Amino acid sequence: MDENRGDEIRGTAGGTAPVPLSVLDLVTVGQGRTATQALRTGVDIARLAESRGFHRYWVAEHHSMPGVASSSPAVILAHTAAHTERIRLGSGGVMLPNHAPLVIAEQFGTLEAMAPGRVDLGLGRAPGTDGATAAALRRTERLNEGAEDFPQQLAELTRFLDDDFPDGHPYARIHAVPGPVQATSDGGVQSAGRPPIWLLGSSGFSARLAGVLGLPFAFAHHFSAQNTVPALDLYRESFKPSAVLDAPYALIGVAALAADEEREARRQVLSGALSMLRLRSGRPGLVPTPEEAEAYAFSPMEREFVDSWLVNIVHGTADEVRAGLDDLAKRTGADELMITANAHSGEARLRSYELIADAYGLPVLG
Q1: CB contact at 8 A, 314 and 355
Q2: CA atoms within 13 A on the CB side of 68
Q3: What is the mean pLDDT of residues 58-68?
Q4: CA–CA distance, 238 with 213 (Å, rounded to integer)
Q5: CA 72 – CA 90 distance, rounded (Å)
Q6: Are the CB atoms for 79 and 110 separated by under 8 Å?
Q7: Residues 314-334 pLDDT 10s
Q8: How many other CB atoms are there within 10 angstroms of residue 77's CB atom?
Q9: Within a 10 A sphere around the Cβ of 103, how many other Cβ atoms?
């Protein structure tokens, strides 16, 4: 067991929080806002999270969605690394079938060199978009093959990150740089460290694979709540101790938004729900304003979707959100909660994280 790698993965709960708290940022773009503003808000959120003791800040790969400006996690993380000092930074996640494993090893090796010891590599096997966009990304129509090949792609990526292809392998003389090869080269003084790998999922496939490989697991509770407990149970049942972890470690992504008043929280999450309704209906766009969402004439079927969506968003005053997060941690046994706030304005998202930090008495760090 590599204790240092385990220490990189496990967080420490701050204040009165039941488990470590982290942030998942979708870099949402609201109507009347620009991608530039959204990316600046992302940096502000990361800096706030760092100053209040949140454990990590992740961004997720999405494509062809006007309201989500996180198509290039590595680029965003490099920018965020330049504006932070301590908080862990990572992908939640990179969709591995969209990329050559060597490219991801190089990108995250570069990030590790920029921010040594605080980079996470979270990997998913979904496209992060629709089928047509996935085909454009991968230059192939054989999309199912990408998901089915995920274990092999993961093994190849891990070999590149560790620089340990066996003699005789076609890639034995290929090295991901920056990476461990620099530490073993003549005169090398580079760190041999590399980002820990997390597997992400919204069903049982990645849960079982993460358990078998002894890797940390992140579950997308924020859009697949009905599968959360079964997936976490499967992960724990499948877990085999590894050089990375000696016991399971699972975080869940949680949609949560706190506001100074309950009604304001409801207004903010309703705009996010309308945005999701449009996405699921094949009409992705910018995140609508709360005013537009309140005035929208939902059909009975649309109202049913929105109501079912809002049930799984923890929202309200700071005390109400704290109670909801406490209950979720208890019900799922998650080792960490990664909070994502989907709202029209950056100000509302920043205020939400601040209120949650205050509700748990998280320290104000220098």
Answers
A1: no
A2: 24
A3: 93
A4: 9
A5: 12
A6: no
A7: 999 999 999 999 999 999 999
A8: 25
A9: 15
Percent of the chain with pLDDT over 70: 93
Q: Can you name the residues that pair with 255 across neighbouring β-strands?
A: 340
Q: What pLDDT score was predicted for residue 113?
A: 94
CB 43 within 8 A of CB 359: no
Which amino acid, one-letter code, is at 233?
D
pLDDT digits (tens, 9 = 90+) for 14-33: 999 999 999 999 999 999 99
d(CA 36, CA 14): 32
CA 190/CA 64 separation, integer angstroms: 38
Residue 218 three-state SS: strand
Radius of gyration of the chain (CA): 20
Q: What is the pLDDT of residue 130?
A: 67
**9 close to 47: Cβ distance less than 8 angstroms:** no
Tell me the pTM: 0.94
Report the C-alpha gap between 73 and 61 in whole angstroms: 6
Neighbours of 174 (CB within 10 A): 15
Residue in 42, 50, 53 with CA at minimum distance from that of residue 12: 53
Residues whose CB is less than 8 angstroms from the CB of residue 85 and which lie 6 or more positions away in sequence, other chains included: 50
